[in-house]
Amino acid sequence: MKKKKKPVLLEKLTIEKYAAEGRCLARVDGKVIFVEKVVPGDVVDVWVTKSKGDWAEGYPHQFHTYSEQRVQPFCEHFGVCGGCTWQMLPYSLQLEYKQQQVVDQLTRIGGLRLPEIMPIKGANPIRHYRNKLEFTFSNRRYLTREEMQKPEESSEGHYAGFHVKGMFNKVVNVKECHLMAEPVNLIRETVKAKTIEMGLPFYDLARKTGWIRSVQYRYCTTEDLMVNVILGYDVPEKRNSLLHELLEKVPAITTLYYTINHKVNDSMTDLSPIFFAGKKDHAIEKLGDFNFKISPVSFFQTNSRQAEVLYEITRQFAELDGSQVVYDLYCGTGSIGIYISAGAKKVVGVEMVEAAIADARENAAMNQISHAEFFTGDATKVCNDAFFALHGRPDVIITDPPRAGMTEKLVEQILALEAPLVVYVSCNPATQARDLKWLAAKYDVTAVQPVDMFPHTLHIENVVQLKLRKS
């Protein structure tokens, strides 16, 4: 039987600088140690979780000295809830580290010759900035190490909050969340209190049983507030009592749904939310001059104010003058294509998810945009010679892929199309850098603009303009 390696504790490491993905680094005898949940200037003991030849990973065990760069987190759940991992950093420093991350990844992974990277566009506001949120209800909560030492503390009860990072069966019991403006906390507490009053069980995440599972919110800048209550099974009388209580206690709700989810997973893609009450069966979000219809299952950028900043940069980078055919790949519900449409001769959007394309077409019609068309399918298969003969070849390509980046096949297709200009919008500069390295066979990077969509987190968006190299 193989002996389990004894954990290694490295004592009094001085954290030197920010690395990437929310981690910082220290050095021991030339070996780089990546550490999470620390700040440059901290002096800390570190438990090593992984060790390779010239690098290792670990997490803090005990702090000896805290960095002068730290600030007091504003949320009482910081350090336990995994939502806002950078609250101990002043926002100016968060932006500095995110800018550094973009530079490092484009140069080290991409190996690219870059123009001067523009200063990151910070968010405003940096609290209550999300338009979408979900609280999970559970009969068990996460106990901190300190709480586990107290025999009177129990994990069993009635809780609502967020999943603990890496733990599927427990939640952090949230009292106040700063990610979305009120009445977000009032809604959570109303659902919690009414469910307890009715004697119905909170969901057991381990056994996959129970009545109240979660509540989803969509709160738009238009002040439309859509709420969807997800239940493990239906008890019509109790369900109606809960929903009427919500409408009475929270008159700001403009659209109220409920969804019955008998499944063991939380995915909404194969579920049918049921409209219960409201002024209309959807929410409307506004970006620039355009309105967007949002249903309970719609994908939409979760920071509306910064989405407008992101899309405005995309429009500027596209350099549209009314003569170009624009292809919007990974178009989702068509928000980018619609936003930049005024400067295009024609917009062609392509997306794998059929429901998203249905939303895109509806949004184009609602905004009276007749020169934008949207198609379901894999762009590498949809965009063939027959398709180009019908819709025109692209003068500008906009691509906004998921975190995994573009497929190599799609990169090859973009290279073959030789559109004069490409705008690459990314939520992951690491995979963006990989794709840009492939595109460098024919394209030069001509502009780079980082955008912070998610204050107090390590996530960063980045927009890159590429132009076809003249042979």
CATH class of the largest domain: Alpha Beta
Beta percentage is 25-35%
Strand adjacency order, main sheet? 9-8-7-10-11-12-13
Average pLDDT: 93
Question: Total domains, how many?
Answer: 3
Number of helices: 11
Structure commentary:
A hairpin with a 5-residue loop joins strand 10 and strand 11. The chain has a seven-stranded mixed sheet. A seven-stranded mixed sheet has the order 18-17-16-19-20-22-21, with helices on both faces. A six-stranded mixed sheet has the order 1-5-6-4-3-2. The longest helix has 18 residues, at 91-108. It has helices at 91-108, 145-148, 184-198, 236-249, 304-318, 335-339, 354-366, 379-382, 385-391, 408-417, 429-439; strands at residues 8-14, 17-20, 23-28, 31-36, 43-51, 55-65, 132-140, 156-164, 167-173, 212-219, 225-231, 255-260, 274-278, 283-287, 290-294, 325-329, 346-351, 372-376, 396-399, 421-426, 443-451, 461-468. Helix 1 packs parallel to helix 11 (429-439) and helix 3 packs antiparallel against helix 4 (236-249). The protein has 471 residues and is an alpha/beta fold. 25% of the residues lie in helices and 31% in strands. It has eleven helices and 22 strands. It has three domains: 8-70, OB fold (Dihydrolipoamide Acetyltransferase, E2P) (Beta Barrel); 94-125 and 302-468, 3-Layer(aba) Sandwich (Rossmann fold), CATH 3.40.50; 132-287, OB fold (Dihydrolipoamide Acetyltransferase, E2P) (Beta Barrel), CATH 2.40.50.
